[in-house]
Amino acid sequence: MTGLSRGLVLGGLGIVALLATPAIPRAQAPVTFNKDVAPIFNRNCASCHRAGEMAPMSLTSFKDARPWANAIRKAVIERAMPPWGADPAFGEFANSLRLSDQELATIAAWVGGGSLEGDARDLPAPPVFTDGWHIGTPDAVLSMSAPADVPASGPRILVDFKIQTHFSEDKYLELAEVTPGNRPVTHHAVISVQDESGSHRIASYLPGGAVNSFPPGVAKLIPKDTTLNLNMHYNPKGTATTDKTTMAFVFAKGPIEKIAVTAMSGTRDLDIPPGATNYEAKGTPFVFAGDSHILSLLPRMNERGKDYKYTLVYPDGRSVVLLSVPKFNDSWQPSYILKTPIAAPKGSRIETIAHYDNSANNKQNPDPTARIKYGPEIMNGYFDYTVDSQNLLKNTTRAAAQP
Fold this sequence. Notes:
403 residues; Jelly Rolls; 5 helices; 23 strands; 33% strand
């Protein structure tokens, strides 16, 4: 073999060897709070986890979040936080708090990698929150005329308060916020309009939701000089105290086409035996009298509530699950606002089904030996909808909406 040939062969072998050598992987940058985790917390957690809000700790800074790192990882992996009960297999919701799988992985990697702070230059600007009302500057603020007394002990308290509006004209409610004066003892506050046709819910405070909003062109109606009913549910917590709940309203400034109607598929026919682990209840179906669109869903149960499901059944027999909450949480009951309103043709019906755990295995159960009727436990499948034929822009009188 000539020297030239030998060189070509050896050179070729060198090239082959070089190509066969596995590439050395680049070291992955460590996951840090400032660059990777803070944006997730800002988007999904800071509305509650900040100073002055309902959560027990703030997550708006590394200093605040770092001591809770292991607890945070456990809570998000188990999907206990952020609290969002809807099964992702059914429905799309505009107010979803559910973290993506990538967001879960990022938080887990941050904690697993030592919960590093990172470069201060990577920290995003904190979210901006309005002091006071979350809905901005309200057009009207109403409250209970005097504080309500809540004793130190005893059964839950359900009490109604009448509130005069003194509005000189009909008001179309675009945004509402209900703020208890004493959140620790307040389970819910529900505001209803009282008129000749009955009682109509317009806003509420529930664990998981204090702000009530509607799509553009849709509002709740508060007739002029009407009386509002404020239904309060208090739970004594060991110390005698008081509450003075306040509500703020923002009225529509632009044209309103439709009035949002609140209806329900539920039942009062509850008789839950002591120790029952999976008691089933079915709500009375709600049938749409005209073509309509469903805006949001609000399932309501108390401590023994286990799961809840809404199904829309079409006139031809087809059906679709609107919402499934497989692990109902009495301490977090948001309204599930549909990303896109769902058409419900005339003759369609909403059916609801729920299950209850009255056993000792239910850690929220105050007394597994008790037989439970409606009152201590409820099945209220609320939802908001609009009627397609209603158009207030073409008719200045209040269009008739199905009660």
